[in-house]
Amino acid sequence: MAVAAAAIVQEGRLLVVSKQAAPDVFYLPGGKPDAGEAPLEALCRELDEELGVEPLQPRLLAHIDSVAALEGVPMRLTLFEARIDRPPRPAAELARLRWISGEAPDIRLAPAVTDHVLPLLRRRGSMEP
């Protein structure tokens, strides 16, 4: 399964979201590309639909192989780093959003976030260890 997602860090905190179908599991904003849609196009569409924001200066950060938190299937995550143009507001299928620090958060995070994204952001200096 292919997924495009954004690492949006502001003031050392990472934006994570949860779906109404599983409100206790948090993951990065983004989603699956539609047929013929490039990862960056999918990311822009998903951020608009789910959070009402546009990514500013998105750039490819990494390709991550992990397991999809909700579906439990192998996932290839195309990870972009971006800022956003306005405060996000959960819409569409999203239930909640949170800004988390680099410390062990008190919420359940998707495997890709805990195993790959947070360590990558810490190594890059985007988030505190």
Comma- or semicolon-separated keywords:
single chain, about 130 residues, alpha+beta, Nucleoside Triphosphate Pyrophosphohydrolase, 5-stranded mixed sheet, 9 strands, globular, mutator protein, 8-oxo-7,8-dihydrodeoxyguanosine triphosphate pyrophosphatase activity, metal ion binding
Structural account:
- The protein is α+β, with helices and mostly antiparallel strands.
- The chain has one domain (2-124): Nucleoside Triphosphate Pyrophosphohydrolase (Alpha-Beta Complex).
- It is 21% helix and 43% strand.
- Strands 2, 3, 4, 8 and 9 form a five-stranded mixed sheet that branches.
- Strand 3 and strand 4 form a beta hairpin.
- It is globular and about 40 Å long.
- The N and C termini lie far apart (30 Å).
- The mean pLDDT is 94.
Low-confidence stretches: none
Total domains: 1
- What is the CATH superfamily? Nucleoside Triphosphate Pyrophosphohydrolase
Mean of residue pLDDT?
94
Q: Identify the overall geometry.
A: globular
Structural class: alpha+beta
- DSSP strand count: 9
CATH architecture classification: Alpha-Beta Complex
Please report the first level of CATH classification, the CATH class. Answer: Alpha Beta
Q: Number of DSSP helices?
A: 2
CATH topology: Nucleoside Triphosphate Pyrophosphohydrolase
Over the alpha carbons, how many angstroms does the gyration radius reach?
13 Å
Residues in β-strands, percent: 35-45%
Helix-strand string: EEEEEHEEEEH
- Fraction of residues in H or I helices: 10-25%
Report the span from N to C terminus: 30 Å
Please give the largest β-sheet: 5 strands, mixed
Keywords: DNA damage, DNA repair, DNA replication, Hydrolase, Magnesium, Metal-binding, Mutator protein
Protein name: 8-oxo-dGTP diphosphatase
Cofactor: Mg(2+)
GO molecular function, one term: 8-oxo-7,8-dihydroguanosine triphosphate pyrophosphatase activity
